[in-house]
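User: structure tokens for this one?
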Amino acid sequence: MDKLKSKKKGKEFDFVCSEENIVVEENILYMVRFCGIEQYPVKTAEWYIIDGDGTEDDPAMLCLDTAFGIGNGLHEDTAELNVEPMWKILFYSVEIPITALQPGFCLEQPNFEKDVYGDLYYAEHQPTTRNRMEILQAEGTRLKIRLTGTTEDVNFYDGSKPQSTLQLVAWFDRK
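Assistant:
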């Protein structure tokens, strides 16, 4: 299995896919499906924090909302759908101080129970699992985030196809 590589610096990322080396460009969602790699341009990417009370019963949430345009390199089974996907993930932690949102900050939301903590809207809502985010760069309230996750194939909801991998490096604006 090959690792993804950054186009700009040739740096290897942590996520792995079964395709040949994918050139990861900013502001493009890469959906690695059983039949190839589909790409969706970012229309909007926003982040916000919902404060909790600092306990495990009421943790803080870092919310990442992304909306995408119609994809490129689509497989024949999705080419005519003209879908503009959306991906929302809620990352929970007892505390998430804004000052901690610096390069190297990571959170994971495995979502193995298929709760609503990670959601991809394609033709219908479907959970995303193995969600992970890492802040790569910060410029004021803008955050460059690497986001990964997996989901059931967007056109085969019966489990007959392998999980699809979602990969994104994008600039998120504070909402």
